[in-house]
User: Fold this.
Amino acid sequence: MAGYLLRRTVQILLTLFVFLTIVFFLVNAQPGDITRLYSMDPSLPPETRANLQELFGVNEPLWKQYLVHLKNTVTGNFGVSFSLYPRTVGDVILERLPRTLVLFVTATVISFYLGFALGKIIAWRRGGWVEYTSTIGGVSLYTVFTPWFGLMMIWLFAFKAGWLPIGKFLDPVVWRDAPTDSNTIFNLMLATAAVLTVVVFAVVLATSRKRLAKAPLIHVGTIAAAVAAVVGVWLASGVGHLAFDLVRHMILPIATLTLISFAGTMLLTRNSMLEVIREDHVMVARAKGLPEKVVRDKHVARNALLPVVTSFVFSLAFAIDGGVIIESIFSWPGMGQTLVSATVSEDLPLAVGAFVFVGIFVLVAHLAADVLYAYLDPRVRYR
Amino acid sequence: MTTEAAPVAAAPSLWKMRLTLAGRSLKQNWSLFLGTRIGLLGLAIIVFYLLLAAAHPILMHTIWDERTYDPIIGYAFDEPVQPAPPSLSHPLGTDPLGRDILSQLMFSTRSEFLLGLLAALMTVCIGTMVGAIAAYYGGWVDTLLMRLADIMIMMPAISILIVLSALFEVGHLELAVLIGLLSGFGGTGVVLKSQALSVVVKPYIEAARAAGGGTLHILLVHVVPNLLPLSFLYMMFTVTSAIFSEAVLSFLGLLDVRMSWGLMIHTTESAGYLLQVTEYWWLIFPASLSITLLCSSFYLLGRSLDEVVNPRLRRT
Assistant:
């Protein structure tokens, strides 16, 4: 196991190196250089232009620039953003990465839960109208033109019905005389969510081991109590309405992402279930006279889980990438929107920084998938 | 090739036998395909759009006047206000620049098909060759190609396409080549290699080698044909992702194309009609629905082909 993981880590570091190289040469392959946006200004005195080029090091030989690029990436120094001038790229990214993560982790978890539950059902009722309608519905949602679908959601729930805000991260009117800034509140919310997850997970893990008859009751009770406690604490803290505003802005993008991506899990679960159903132990379980629900959930679904779990981690990686579209549509100020707006406005330092970060994140998610896979599938571990 | 070594009299009967076998398996697979039903729906949508694409040049040459109906530089002089609602002469209305929407839609269909087909062909040619070569040679060739595939799979594809199309002039052709490279050397290559691994250990490969067949001959005549069903399946999924990427990129206004479905929505957005969904529905729905329908039809077709070529998914 350790050897396998070590090999994968080295491979991923190598991939990262290749990725950084590609980024560098992509940026350098275009005509002009990074200072072009400002140094082409005819009113600029020649010495200022020379200064600018000196500052960005574009007069150095290419290999030297490449080494500097690598060094800066490793030390996390991406320079200063052009469009958000006094702020450094690292600062902007540190602010926006958590926003993206929250959006996509939540949506991916929900859509996997939903997709797995639905996939179980349609694999079991093969050939019925349930299968056809959910397959066609799921595939249409899965391949829908994402910008249009996001737009329809905005139009329906925010523009016409007026239940939810139209895009963006917060409502300035609510935040006008807020005691703290939104990032503090957001980070506190993240901490709360993390604690909540750990508590619920610990209780579920502790009770499911003992085969208690009342386990479902305990689970529901714990979750309800924990949620009530969280809501109570936030209400008492005096900034509850600010947190509520952020949550309101999150609902629509998360719902859209969930609807778009659950079908992938559903169809994967279905195929994986159909392969397990043909195995002998399922027939044995049926011959024992076990109820259909037990055969489905305990004998088939658990064995069909492996590819689904792996694809869960992979889709976390791809969510960041695909999130570019959703974030631009909902004006959610995360990594994807930063990447698009920086690219369109020719803010090269920010664009390169965001691009490199998206790449690093995808690679880390792949490493996580490998660890999980090796943990779940013994055949990989002992190779 | 060893055509001279084969007896001349046996050649026609061999071909006849091959044709009969091919016909039989085609008939069998077709009935399997019909059994999945969702594939037929996909096929119907694709045929509908093919007809749309074919009808455009005919209409342009017969009843549609070029100055009014040209998808890019036309102007609907018969309408007092642009964008005009649907009417008899303009069944889907006109866009904010006075161009006929139906004409734009039909004109773009052709390039979407060409883009999808080109990207899929690139992907499958590269993927099949990568898979066959990696499985046949093994060793360091295999390692090299598979590590390359790892890199390709890990690339954030949409972000790369956005950055590339912003930095360089990317049109349909370049996009198709990019998608073909990314997915041919990446995911598709890996899947086809795993299939090729089960082909290269078959006895007939060994027999061919014993009979003195060269490497190229074995690869092209014995390995690649056995990969074709799976390659064909992956063509469908590539078409979906190619059309989708094109739509997203041209919606963001990053692609160097003259007209496409994504660009039609981009025009709507930049003219500010994006949230007037009921008042100006013809500016938003035709293009978006076309993208969605065509993407999902190829996906559905791929799913049902999956059930045909993958025996483990068949009904017992």
